Amino acid sequence: MQQSILKRNNINITGKGTQTILFAPGFGCDQNMWRLVAPAFEEKYRIVLFDYVGSGKSDYSAYNAERYSSLYGYSQDVLDICAFLELKEAIFIGHSVGSIIGLLASIQKPEYFERLIMVGPSPCYLNEPPHYMGGFEKQDIKELMELMEMNYIGWANYLSQVIMKNPDRPELSKELSDSFCSTDPIVARQFAAATFLSDHRADLPKSVVPSLIMQCAEDAIAPLTVGDYMHRHLPHSTLRLMKATGHCPHLSHPEETIGLIQGYLKHNLVVKE
């Protein structure tokens, strides 16, 4: 079982510290997306990187359509990793939907986590005016899902530009598009449905783990209204507005991302050497 989890989620461990930081990628991405951020924490922390089943170098044979039909299947993977590594009071850093996956895991097993750091999180992507604006109409999501079915490469190219939102740096959008295209299309479509059609707003008040919400500027995937909603409904949360534009500051603005995380940890945690 232990070896199967290592292989299943392609777990890689680095760092010199004893307290663990667990980095979770977002939709359609693998652990490589953290390469500009994770090394900054290796001196003081133990770093754990992993891939979701169906992406990166994970064990694709472990994919189960029923298990991964909702975010709870992915959160169970996180719990499996925590149990295997015998984590206690770890720091979980998640990007986008990876943040919500970590939140769900922390609700079930709060003892595994000391802090949650969420980069561009959203508990629900659909608009429900006038009380909630997630950024997308149902028709928007429907059309995105249909485009995935008809033209997966075209969908990847389009969505990567919307997500990255740094048109002067096309190499960033290309990297994200390549990441999408490296994921099995069937797995990606199911993960997309589990992500963009989910609604975990009711789970926010259940959280007991202190958290940092990192809200990007001009983020089409998780707009400012979402960051504000998260902060108001997530107990023990801190909200930080970033200068970074788009939805992937760990790629587009790694220095600011590192600085905000380090500042939060310095003022809210005692590093366990």
UniProtKB/TrEMBL annotation:
AB hydrolase-1 domain sequence ranges: 21-258
Superkingdom of the organism of origin: Bacteria
Name by which UniProt lists this protein: Sigma factor SigB regulation protein RsbQ
Pfam families: Abhydrolase_6
InterPro entries: AB_hydrolase_1 (IPR000073), AB_hydrolase_fold (IPR029058)
Protein family according to the UniProt entry: Belongs to the AB hydrolase superfamily.
Transmembrane segments: none
